[in-house]
C-alpha cells in the first residue's frame, strides 16, 4: 500500500520535449504531446523520478490537495491462487518485495490476478516500484512470469526488464566448481525454501 502525497507538475516554459521524463516514469504517467510534457495526475504515483532526471529542471513535485491511497484488496481474489502464484515465483506471499512501499508478494500476485500485465500495471495498482525502483523489479518479473506473462519493455522507455538468475537456476556444474570456494548454493536453496513455505501469519492456508 502506498499513500501518494505528491504529484509531478511541469513548467511548460522550461520543458524542451526531450522525453527523459517519459522514459523513466514507472507508471507511464507523463507523456510528451505537442512538444510539451503532460502529467496524468490520476496515474502519477509521486515517485519524483521525472523531477530528478529532467535535464531542464522543468518538473516540480507538489503536495496533493487529497492524498491518494494505492492498495489492492486481496479479499477480491482467490487466496489459494495468490499462494500458488507466489510459490511458483519462489516467494512467500507475506514476504515484502518492495521495501520503499512495504508491498508484499501477495499484493503483486493479487494485482496480476486482477489483470496487471506489466511492471507498469503492477506499480500503478499497488504502488510497488515507485520508491527506489530498483530492488523490486526482479520479484515483480518473477511473479509475472509465474503467471505466464512475459512483458515487453515500454517502447522507447528506459525501464530495465532483464531477469537475473536465481539460486535455483545455477547449473550443477557451476555449483560443483564453486563448492570448494565457500559457496553453498544447495544450503541457500534449503534455507530459501523454508522461507517460501513458512506458515502464513495473516491468512490461514486451506
Ligand atoms: S524531461 Fe523535462 S524537458 Fe524533458 S520532456 Fe520531460 S519535462 Fe520536458
Ligand atoms: S509517477 Fe513518478 S515519474 Fe511518473 S509522473 Fe509521477 S512523479 Fe513523475
Walk me through the structure.
This protein is α+β, with helices and mostly antiparallel strands and 206 residues long. The chain has 2 domains: 2-70, Alpha-Beta Plaits, CATH 3.30.70.20; 74-164, no CATH class. 33% of the residues lie in helices and 17% in strands. It has 8 helices and 6 strands. The protein has a two-stranded antiparallel sheet. A two-stranded antiparallel ribbon has the order 2-3. A two-stranded antiparallel ribbon has the order 5-6. Strand 5 and strand 6 (103-104) form a beta hairpin. Helix 3 crosses helix 4 and helix 4 (105-113) packs across helix 6 (137-146). It is globular and about 60 Å long. One iron/sulfur cluster (SF4) binds at residues 8, 24-25, 27, 29-30, 39, 44-50.
Largest sheet: 2 strands, antiparallel
Range of helix content? 25-40%
Helix-strand makeup class: alpha+beta
Tell me what portion of residues adopts beta-strand conformation: 15-25%
Uncertain regions spanning at least 5 consecutive residues: none
Distance between the termini: 25 Å
Q: How does the overall form come out from the CA principal axes?
A: globular
Bound molecules: iron/sulfur cluster
Domain module tally: 2
Strand numbers in spatial order across the main sheet:
1-4
Rounded radius of gyration (Å): 19 Å
Order of helices and strands: EHEEHEHEEHHHHH
- The chain-level mean pLDDT equals 93
H/I helix tally: 8
Number of extended strands: 6
Amino acid at each position: 500500500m502506498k499513500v501518494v502525497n505528491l504529484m509531478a507538475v511541469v513548467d511548460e516554459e522550461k520543458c524542451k520535449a526531450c522525453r527523459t521524463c517519459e522514459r523513466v516514469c514507472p507508471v507511464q504517467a507523463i507523456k510528451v504531446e505537442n512538444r510539451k510534457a503532460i502529467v496524468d495526475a490520476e496515474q502519477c504515483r509521486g515517485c519524483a523520478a521525472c523531477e530528478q532526471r529532467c535535464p531542464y529542471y522543468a518538473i516540480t513535485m507538489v503536495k496533493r490537495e487529497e492524498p491518494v491511497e494505492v492498495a489492492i484488496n486481496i479479499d477480491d481474489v482467490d487466496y489459494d491462487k495468490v499462494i500458488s502464484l507466489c510459490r511458483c515465483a519462489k516467494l512467500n506471499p507475506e514476504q515484502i518485495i518492495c521495501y520503499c512501499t512495504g508491498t508484499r508478494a501477495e499484493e503483486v500476485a493479487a494485482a496480476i490476478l486482477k489483470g496487471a500485465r506489466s511492471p507498469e500495471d503492477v506499480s500503478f495498482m499497488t504502488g510497488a516500484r515507485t520508491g527506489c525502483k530498483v530492488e523490486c523489479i526482479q520479484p515483480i518479473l518473477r511473479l509475472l512470469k509465474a503467471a505466464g506473462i512475459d512483458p515487453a519493455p515500454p517502447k522507447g522507455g528506459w525501464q530495465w526488464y532483464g531477469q537475473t538468475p536465481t539460486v535455483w537456476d545455477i547449473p550443477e556444474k557451476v555449483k560443483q566448481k564453486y563448492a570448494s570456494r565457500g559457496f553453498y548454493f544447495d544450503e541457500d536453496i534449503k534455507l530459501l525454501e523454508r522461507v517460501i513455505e513458512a506458515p502464513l501469519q495473516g491468512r490461514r492456508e486451506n
